Amino acid sequence: MTVRLRPHHLLCLLTYAGKGYSAAFVANFDAIAARLSAGEHILIVFGPDDICAPLLGEAEPHCLRDSVTERDRQAAASVGTLLGYAIAENMELQLYPSLLRAMRDAFSSGRTRGACGGCEWFDLCSSIAASDYRTVALR
Fold it and tell me: For the purposes of burial, counting CB atoms within 10 Å of the CB of 21, is it exposed (0-12), middle (13-18) or buried (19 or more)?
């Protein structure tokens, strides 16, 4: 099995620490973090993904907004630069410990934070990164 993720969620999962839009969102993200921690692969999608699933029943889910699509574009570019290859739809990734550390180092230094501008979680994620990711769900 794979976890379907949109590009900007590659950044969100780095700092996810059990906070979110709703109890259903948090429970879903907790389960996804556990699956990824257990070694499950990621399948890149452009558009709503497995993390978005609990929000898609809302009248106007933010997952469908143009700003989120732009956030995906920016995240794909910065993560692709970090990895040395383009982040493309339907590609698979596995977050080996060395890759996760490299992604977190790049996030902490700001190299991959361009997609995070204007995000309501920016300050929380910054705080988690500054604490060396001690409280994160994904290990």
Answer: middle
